């Protein structure tokens, strides 16, 4: 089978369609859960009108496109939940870095990505994304990580950190006992700011180019990562929603958000991939916090 025949393989086309459908359905469920949290947040701490997601489609000139979902609310200060499905041809330089693209630089990518910046400094920010990418090979990637904004919350013994890690540990170990330790370590290494010699948050899991040789197994694992996120983050957010905060804590939050900006612009692979493949700039940079300080 030639490279061109492989890319047009009906089996591969079915996998692409199933992955896309999953990411879109997960988006819908996450947005519903987040809008419920927004509606249930106590008005005394979060005055104003409830936010709702606003969806905006975009098209990529080279092929494909996506849907941005943004909510600016009273509990969620800024949250984006986006899905995209794009295809095209890597540049020769970028093709050299992607498995299976050396001889045929055509690609397909579909996925979901989200980042939530909360109004309360007591409620951690969170990031999650999962994706499926095909060249002449196919693989999954993604993960989730939690970023508490207050100093006393940024340790592995904090209850939110324990609950977050336990949930993703269970998701990993349902498929392979070795995956949690591997992908937790990868997350700790990846979400690190070398210029400040500090982690971005308390971690989670991160995996890329995940191909065990069994598509169904790997797709099931990626679905479980999405389910794990949908299970644990709303619980963490709801559990902190009723805690009042101080002006000093808000200032800590704004300064720590600056670390988020630094990481995403300097080191994040997803940002690089999106910009180098002609993605939607508005969607890619929607991960930036709505308000931040560098004292």
Please describe the topology of this protein.
Elements: H1 3-7, H2 10-40, E1 54-59, E2 64-71, E3 76-89, H3 92-95, E4 106-118, E5 125-134, E6 138-147, H4 159-173, H5 179-190, E7 192-193, E8 198-199, E9 203-210, H6 215-240, H7 247-266, H8 269-276, H9 281-284
Antiparallel strand pairs: 1-2, 2-3, 3-4, 4-5, 5-6, 6-9, 7-8
Beta-strand residue percentage = 15-25%
What's the total helix number?
Answer: 9
- Proportion of residues in helical segments: 40-55%
How confident overall, as mean pLDDT?
A: 93
Major beta-sheet overview: 7 strands, antiparallel
The counted number of beta strands is 9
Distance between the termini: 59 Å
Kindly provide the radius of gyration, computed on alpha-carbon positions and rounded to a whole number of angstroms: 19 Å
Give the low-pLDDT segments: 1-6
What global shape is seen? globular
Strand order of the largest sheet: 1-2-3-4-5-6-9
Along the chain, the helix and strand elements come as HHEEEHEEEHHEEEHHHH
Broad structural category? alpha+beta
Characterization of this structure:
The chain is of the alpha+beta class and about 300 residues long. It contains nine helices and nine strands. The strands form two sheets. A seven-stranded antiparallel β-sheet has the order 1-2-3-4-5-6-9. The protein has a two-stranded antiparallel ribbon with strand order 7-8. A hairpin with a 4-residue loop joins strand 1 and strand 2. Mean pLDDT is about 95; it is low at about 1-5.
């Amino acid at each position: 089978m030639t490279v061109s025949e492989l890319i047009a393989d009906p089996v591969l086309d079915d996998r692409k369609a199933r992955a896309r459908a999953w990411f879109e359905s997960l988006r819908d469920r996450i947005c519903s859960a987040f809008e419920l949290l927004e509606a249930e947040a106590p008005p005394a701490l979060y005055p104003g009108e409830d936010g709702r997601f606003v969806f905006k489609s975009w098209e990529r000139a080279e092929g494909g496109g996506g849907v941005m979902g943004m909510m600016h609310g009273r509990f969620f200060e800024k949250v984006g939940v986006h899905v995209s499905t794009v295809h095209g041809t890597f540049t020769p330089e970028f093709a050299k870095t992607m498995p299976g693209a050396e001889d045929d630089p055509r690609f397909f990518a579909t996925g979901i990505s989200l980042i939530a910046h909360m109004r309360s400094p007591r409620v951690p920010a969170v990031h999650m994304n999962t994706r499926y990418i095909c060249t002449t090979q196919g693989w999954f990637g993604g993960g989730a990580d939690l970023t508490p904004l207050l100093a006393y919350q940024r340790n592995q013994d904090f209850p939110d950190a324990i609950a977050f890690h336990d949930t993703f540990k269970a998701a990993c170990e349902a498929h392979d006992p070795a995956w949690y330790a591997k992908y937790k370590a990868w997350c700790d290494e990846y979400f690190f700011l070398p210029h400040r010699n500090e982690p971005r948050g308390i971690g989670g899991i991160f995996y890329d180019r995940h191909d065990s040789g069994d598509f169904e197994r790997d797709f099931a694992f990626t679905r479980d990562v999405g389910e794990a996120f949908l299970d644990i983050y709303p619980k963490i957010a709801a559990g902190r929603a009723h805690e009042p905060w101080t002006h000093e804590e808000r200032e800590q939050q704004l300064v720590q958000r600056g670390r988020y900006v630094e990481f995403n612009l300097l080191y994040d692979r997803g940002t690089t991939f999106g910009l180098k493949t002609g993605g939607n700039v508005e969607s890619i940079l929607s991960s930036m916090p709505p308000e931040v300080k560098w004292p």
